[in-house]
Amino acid sequence: MGAAAVFVVAILAVASPAAAAAGAERGGLVTIPPGLYTPFQRVKAANSGETEAQAPEAIAAFAMDRAPVTNAEYLGFVTAHPEWRKSWTKTLFADGRYLGRWPADLDFGHAEAGDRPVTDVSWFAARAYCKTRGLDLPTTAQWEYALADAGRDEARVRARSLEWFSRPNGAGPGAIGGPVNGYGVGNLIGLVWEWTEDFNAYAITAESRDPNGNDSAAVCGGAAAGIADASDYPAFMRASMRASLKANYTADMLGFRCAGGAP
Amino acid sequence: MTRSRALKVMQAFAAVAALALGAAAAGPGGWPGSSLYNLESRWTDQDGGSVALDAFAGAPVVVAMGYTTCRDICPAIVADMMWVERHLPPGATSRVRFAFFSFDSEADTPERLKLYAESHGLDPRRWTLLRADDSAARELAAALDVPWRPNDRNGFDHAAVLTLLDGKGEIAFQQRGTQASSDELLGRLKGLIAKGE
């Protein structure tokens, strides 16, 4: 499907309440208006080496999936693109746990999993899926900007994030759906963590601190030293999680959604 | 919800991620599953030629990413590569290749890459400098695990990573951070050469 067709879907989803209601069940793209986003991490200043808060970044209008990509949707992708089936995929692109919940190449298991976010997918796989729709993964800035929701409900989103982190994740993610935020985007928290296009952008901080040392200590320490708002613990968690990833990693709590330029 | 509980969640996640150890099986392209040569991106070299990554197959290659206007870490990365080049064992100098891939799809034109190679005295028989579009650069950086991001000074913040690929494009060794002497990478390189790669 071309980008133009995708954007038509996006326009319909936003313009028509009926389409928006249907979109809440099916997923689909919503349009996020432009605005400013201040990256969470502090960075080293060019000359002094002191850390400083980053300047707000202008975010252009973009389109983003209302919900994470589901197992049913992903099945359509691997059906059309055999190179992404679990028995075909190379370790460069996805580790040995890729689609670990799926019993077979074209089988995601129980029927109810169809409405649940696909997990155990790598960055390469997620990106390939989005490219077949003429889309990309959201950048970290786009994803965080969508979650920030222009400041609406900030305290409640943080509280819900903390509640989610504390829940055991043994059974896997639940079905998509439920309330959407002010932009019309749902399920950013509460079901799965999500890949971003530039997930590893801030791993540099940790690496420059301790190039040869213990990975996780360096990541956590680096991130903790570099947060702009120490009270935003969920943002720290998301940043630490992203910095711990490698592009072929898969995990049973990690999914994705797609995004693209503005319609 | 406590902080330690949340950290446990994160640690569990890291443990899962650490299981990324899949065995390398040869794919349809003939390269082992973990080979970088499975990437299909095309690059342009300093002479304007179109290059697929597997053009480097058949001999060890020392790979790094950076950009030519970089004043911070890139000169040190290239210096490390040149150190390896100076210490190549006799007989290996005509086989081992050095490849520098740019993040900067806009500024690093082939002309600029050539100028950089010439001004640094990089022997074109061994050195290739390459550029591609953003998407290809991001993909290669991901495969090489080189964290990077554009910075607000018209450049990029990125890690210094030297990667040694064997003749099939599999990662034989990675050096993270620049070093006064890249002894360990050189040792692995000599090992590959001794094995006939």
TrEMBL record, chain A:
Pfam families tied to this protein: FGE-sulfatase (PF03781)
Organism of derivation: Roseiarcus fermentans
Signal peptide: 1-20
Name of the molecule in the record: Formylglycine-generating enzyme required for sulfatase activity
PANTHER family: FORMYLGLYCINE-GENERATING ENZYME, SULFATASE MODIFYING FACTOR 1, 2
Keyword terms of this UniProt record: Signal
Gene Ontology terms, MF aspect: formylglycine-generating oxidase activity
Residue span, Sulfatase-modifying factor enzyme-like domain: 29-259
Automatic annotation (TrEMBL), chain B:
Family annotation (Pfam families): SCO1-SenC
Signal sequence residues: 1-25
Record: residues binding Cu cation: 70, 74, 158
Keywords: Copper, Disulfide bond, Metal-binding, Signal
Molecular functions per Gene Ontology: metal ion binding
Disulfide bond entries: 70-74
The family this protein is said to belong to: Belongs to the SCO1/2 family.
Protein name per Swiss-Prot or TrEMBL: Protein SCO1/2
Organism of origin: Roseiarcus fermentans
